[in-house]
Amino acid sequence: MKISLPTTSPLTSKDFVYGVATSSFQIEGAAEKREISIWDTFCDTPGKIVDASNGLVACDHYHLWEQDINLIHDLGVDAYRFSICWPRIINNDKSVNRDGVDFYLKVLDKLNELGIKPFVTLYHWDLPQIHEDHGGWLNRETAYHFRDYVEVVVREFGDRVHSYATLNEPFCSAYLGYEVGIHAPGKADRMLGRKAAHHLLLAHGLAMQVLAKESPLTLNGIVLNFTPCYPLTDSPEDKLATQKADDYINQWYMKPIMDGSYPSLIEELPYEQRPDILDDDLAIINHPIDFLGINFYTRLKYRAKAGHLYEEIPPGDVEKTDIGWEVFPQALTDLLVSLNDTYDLPPLYITENGMAGDDHVESGQVKDQLRINYYQAHLEALNQAIQQGVKVDGYFAWSLMDNFEWAEGYLKRFGLVYVDFETQERTLKDSAHCYKEFITQRV
Ligand code: FCB
After folding, report:
1. What is 10-440's CATH superfamily?
2. Active site residues
3. Cβ(407)–Cβ(323) below 8 Å
4. What is the pLDDT of residues 248-267, one digit of tens each?
5. Residue 268 alpha carbon to ligand 1 centre in Å
6. Of 26, 130, 324, 398, which residue is the least packed, with the fewest Cβ within 10 Å?
7. How do residues 371-413 score in pLDDT, each as one tens digit?
8. Cβ count near 61 (within 10 Å)
9. Which atom of ligand 1 is nearest to the CA of 323?
10. What whole-number distance in Å separates Cα of residue 90 and Cα of residue 229?
């Protein structure tokens, strides 16, 4: 029922940062007070969102922000990770939306007043539709528009912010959005994914330049998602295919940032699938970062397949969450240890970890023991990695509350807090009580 770790673990220290995370499109609503993003357009396209829902209201956090921040405070966390909605800050005519800026200023002021560290993500997928109309992340110019937007944010928010992450999970924006089409803007073309990825990485590098110059005291970095890859068998063919899968989905984003080069797999891709890389691009992308955020949920298995780089094997009869992702905490330890062996890492933060559950309120209670077990197992796995020498400074549960889970709509509940989307009533799940108890008992 509880979450607990040995008191000898650095994870039970007050110096370790615990938080909860959300993102703008998933919780804010108040769509009428901002410009349209690619996710609005995607939601309006029949068949794209499982329950045909959208982000027009979501958790109505735009109006309920004060109550939500008080809830975060009640959980006893040290930090709150949330994202800024680009089309709420910059109007289509390029002017600044004062109402949008003021909304985030109120949020930031309240967090600081309560002693909660604001971890701000500058881009969690809600690209202004106006940029998509000009090619979106396939257009190099979008990276420069992002830089201009970041300049505005930094100027407006100043030292109210504790940490800035440029992008959340560029893999999802590029691969899911432009290569397989299950996320906005819904383009499905193998030729497009790497090109979009390169412009996202360029946007990250350009934003890092702005942050380093205009906001040197905040903790500036990026959030990447990793899905560790395991071979189906020990055969050399399956191992090689697995390594290629890892390069394609994980290291493709990590290596340019850390080493200033793409994985050698790039040489194996047909020319038309490769990105257009200009002279200074990789040096810009390779800008030093103060921290790396890691989002971890699950692992995947692969095997060799003739004529393909690799073949992904769907999880079989194993423990899975409500969204179908295998529960495999060992992969978190393996991932962190292997990243530490491979790269010269900055301090790490686990910026997302959590699970979707089939949650229900019964007599005012949500009994989500599976989620408690998930957090327990993953904190243990994190502890293992730390014992093996990996430096991790913080951990954020995804998510503070149930919200719009992208293509799954409101059907997948990831929150520590249950949201009734009809009434907007929030109910702390059992996992929220356990997370709170664990955090507040630290010494
Ligand atoms: C991550 C996203 C986050 C949430 C979780 C479940 O990929 O960053 O917004 O949807 O998955």
Report:
1. Glycosidases (3.20.20.80)
2. 169, 352
3. no
4. 999 999 999 999 999 999 99
5. 30
6. 324
7. 999 999 999 999 999 999 999 999 999 999 999 999 999 999 9
8. 26
9. 6
10. 39
